[in-house]
Amino acid sequence: MSQVIAIHSFRGGTGKSNLSANLAAQLAIQGKRVAVMDTDINSPGLHVLFGLNEDSVKFTLNQHLRGEIPIEQVALRIGEQASANTGLRQLADKHLWLVPSSINTQEITFILRAGYDVDRLNQSLQTLQTSLKLDYLILDTHPGLNEETLLSIAITDILLLVMRPDQQDFQGTMVTTKIARTLEVPNLFLVVNKLLARYDAQQMADDVQGLYQAPAIGVLPLSEDVADLGSADIFSLVYPDHQWSQIIKQIADHVAATS
Fold this sequence. Notes:
The chain is an alpha/beta fold. Helix content is 43%, strand content 17%. Strand 7, helix 9 and strand 8 form a beta-alpha-beta unit. The chain is globular. The N and C termini lie close together (8 Å).
């Protein structure tokens, strides 16, 4: 049965989009049918990780939300865009789609001013799940708590909350977990990102699990190698044996086992 996965954080800069792209790629590599949607309409960035730019994205989620085109027309098969990039070319024969948001300034401004129909978006999720016969639909959400994000979280099967070991993130994640529980999200998991090398990953996992009463399914280190790639490719495909990539694979396995 198709599952909707929301990847969310209370604050920006947690690495949410990078996690979304890498998780989608790993699930696709496992043979799953996966779509990943950039619902961070204010500051979209998923397309960059998949080697795309404004010129190579013909249709966007923004156009669909204005009622101009069906959602199926926005879904871009990544395999058809496979490039010479080390990681991306591994997706050439995989069932992975991207639903991008526009990076055009006018498009972003229009949505910010006019807003959009959340019900239309939620109906579109169901349409995509059916038409593409998806195993997973991953939502890269806008950080923070607003009406659109909350309504999307409310219909998810799995919520991954991404946080850094930072006091602002600790407080914001506490608020978010409480709200997620009031929305009765079936599966709530934590992912800690950008942990400094001097801290023990297992201790951090134990600490956040105790604090939030939710499983911590991954603690990702602060990695210069990830930063050096600069979102130019899918890190876990380029460097599959790297510690960071191995933890991404563990997260993907946990998600697969949950569903």
